[in-house]
Amino acid sequence: MTRLQIAVLVGIACRLALQLASVVLAHRAELEPPSRLKGWGLSSEVWRRSRAHTLETLYPKWIGRLLTLGGLIWLWLSGTADSFALWASSLNHGSIYFGSTVYFTCLVLGSRVIQLPFAAWTSFHVEPRYRPVPNPAKQRINLLFGHLVLDLAKVFCLSAVLAVMMANRGMPFFVPPVLVAAFLVLYSIGTASRSMKKAFGGARRLDSMPVWLSIQSVAKSAQLSVSNVHVLAASKSQSVVNAMMVGSGENREVLLFDNLIRKFTPEQVAAVVAHEFGHAEGEHLRWMGLVRFAVLATVYSIAGWCISNPSFCTDMGFQSSSPLVALLGAYILILPIDTFLLGPILFGLSRRNEWAADRFAAERCGVAEDLAQALIGISEHNLSQVASHPFNVFFAGTHPSTEERVTRLFAQANASPS
């Protein structure tokens, strides 16, 4: 085996070990709310249900990922990927785009077939027992289909990068990846609001007067004007509660799940909206868009370099130097890079933005205690763990743990949780 093969296999093994460690740490979580959280009003029953829900969803997910990576490694080391690439290349009719699309679509469908039994078990057996929703079968099928659509969108983008590079061999290898990454980020930012509203069957203006008055009061204390607050009919398909800021510039708007308004006090809803104001004031969506662009451009540029480097396929142990095989090898190479470098950077910046938004809500809007109570209620309602392990938060957490956030908010409010 070559040095590159050994290094990549070690990286993939470390990726799997990290995912297994997250399961083990979740399994070792406290069975009851710890004494340090005494006075937060945490329910022991909900705490146990949250822990059980986390474990029952993590186990099948990890097994599915293990089998998928095993199949990918088998394709790579057995030479099957070379034969498959040769067949896909024979489908080209003047452009590599068609053959590459077929090639990677088959790989995506194969990975989804491997993971389907585990995803179906989680969707149709685990989730309905913990979070029943109206018409659960339709909702779960839509969720599985949505993941497949996202995977196929990535396939089309990779095929576009490959086709442009093969048609313009004199072009620097990083130019097509950067252009595709820029298009993806701008498109996602521009269509985020419309996509969310479409996914939940539309949105309506906030019509709850107590909630609206509380939001206006919070906005006035922070010297802000607010008009774009919409409510998503999420309860028709989900039982979770959430809120988010979407759009950019004057088109920014706050989207609230209807369950949030129904199950929380007007003051707590207003505190959650104040947190979203913090994202707007800090231009977090714009900055995270730039970071996502940098990450995507890096990933696609690595793929571009692998395609343009004649020795890459040989170093990876492939029998042919087909661009399709090179792109598959690039994907395998990027897996550990994404896990241990790009992912932690992106997650770390996301958590930093969450801290800043919490600080804005506490200091500018004066709703630290209401936001703390809302975060506790959201965690319990969504069956998410209040006290996540720092290891899991560092490698996979877009948000700080609820325990850390609530502790800091109570301190900022200069109020005792008891």
Provide a short characterization of the protein structure:
By secondary structure, the protein is mostly helical. It has helices at 3-27, 44-78, 80-89, 96-130, 136-167, 175-199, 209-221, 258-263, 266-281, 284-308, 312-315, 323-363, 368-382, 390-396, 402-412; strands at residues 203-205, 229-232, 243-246, 253-257.
Please tell me about this protein's structure.
It is a single chain. The protein is mostly helical and 418 residues long. The chain has helices spanning 3-27, 44-78, 80-89, 96-130, 136-167, 175-199, 209-221, 258-263, 266-281, 284-308, 312-315, 323-363, 368-382, 390-396, 402-412; strands spanning 203-205, 229-232, 243-246, 253-257. Strand 3 and strand 4 form a beta hairpin. The protein starts with a helix and ends in a 6-residue tail after the last helix.
Span of the ends, CA to CA: 61 Å
- In this structure, how is the largest beta sheet organized? 4 strands, mixed
Q: What's the total number of strands?
A: 4
Radius of gyration, in Å, reads 23 Å
Looking at this protein, list some descriptive labels:
single chain; about 425 residues; mainly alpha; 4-stranded mixed beta sheet; 15 helices; about 70% helix; about 5% strand; globular
